[in-house]
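Handout for the seminar on molecular recognition.
Each group receives one record of this type.
Step one: identify the two inputs.
Step two: read the structure output and locate the region that could contact zinc ion.
Step three: write two sentences on what you found, then compare them with the reference statements printed after the record.
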Amino acid sequence: MTRFTLEELQITCPELDPRLRKAYDEHLLSEQWDKKKQKVRRRDGKRCQVCGGGSTFEVHHLTYDRVFVEKLSDLVLLCSSCHRKVHRNNLSDDQRDIPCPGNENTDGRSDE
Ligand SMILES: [Zn+2]
Ligand SMILES: [Zn+2]
């Protein structure tokens, strides 16, 4: 069971204020964020919420309204390939960095 379609997420994909970028990068390394990621993983049953599968998972922000103090409902587990597709849609060429915790595995090892 999946909760989102790729299209839905592409349309709603938020943009992070560039001024928050540095603090955000640090946030992603925090223990607090690590715990949050694990909760999202557990809630979403280690399944990509777009394709229902996946082996490498990443957490996507549905909104940055509460960035740093996100609610679990602001976050969704995606596989790395769907996650990339979500962001590819709204990134210009000079903005290739994914403004989301997309560049890291959720636990550093593959689940397959
Ligand atoms: Zn997927
Ligand atoms: Zn994302």
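Reference statements: The helical segments are 6-12, 21-27, 31-43, 80-88. Strands lie at 57-61, 75-79.
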